[in-house]
Amino acid sequence: MPVRPVLRLPEAVLKEQAAPVPVVGGTTRELAVDLVDTMRASPACVGLAAPQIGVGLRAFVVDVTGHRKAGSCHGMFVLFNPELLLAHGPIVAREGCMSVPDLTGDVSRATRVVVRGTTPEGDDRVMQVDAFEARAVLHELDHLDGVLFLDRVGSASSLFPRRVYR
Question: How far apart are CA 132 and CA 69, in angstroms?
């Protein structure tokens, strides 16, 4: 499947509530592959939501494998119609986003969460995640509600230019 362009602000779909996936089938499996391929083609990317590639459906991929801040690590996973069941222990940490490529910001997020969704195979999956994986899941869940990390930054003093690594 193709690697899709990642949309950036001010694209309208990034600020809209994504629609539920009605049925997990061939088309949604293709979306899952596109999400995975696009995430893998994007350096340092640990998650991507369907609205970021112009699809207004409730789906995302996350993979924090090998990240130095990861506690739990469930490998790469795609969830359709994910919902947050439980969240504990907020902490402030720096976040960035491919849809806001020039900035990072300090965002408060829960450090332990339980999320439920449907896999591309149609199975119900409940996951307990923590640390950086929890942050990534919550960040992608926000995308499905039209919320960007910028909306969660407390003040301008908590917003920073993204570092450029050579």
Answer: 6
> Is there a domain that residue 18 lies in?
yes
Q: Residues 74, 49: contact at Cβ < 8 Å?
A: no
Give residue 2's pLDDT: 86
| CATH number for the domain that contains residue 24 | 3.90.45.10
Asked if residue 80 is part of any domain, the answer here is yes
Residue 58 and residue 144 in contact, taking contact as beta carbons nearer than 8 Å: yes
Residue at 2 is within a domain: no
150 contact partners, CB below 8 Å, separation of at least 6 = 9, 100, 103, 105, 159
Whether 81 and 67 have beta carbons less than 8 Å apart is answered as no
Residue 164 scores a pLDDT above 70: no
Q: What is the pLDDT of residues 56-113, one digit of tens each?
A: 999 999 999 999 999 999 999 999 999 999 999 899 999 999 999 999 999 999 999 9
116 and 94 in contact (C-beta within 8 Å)? no
Does the model's pTM come out above 0.90?
A: yes
Would you please indicate which residues are annotated as catalytic (active-site) residues? Answer: 140
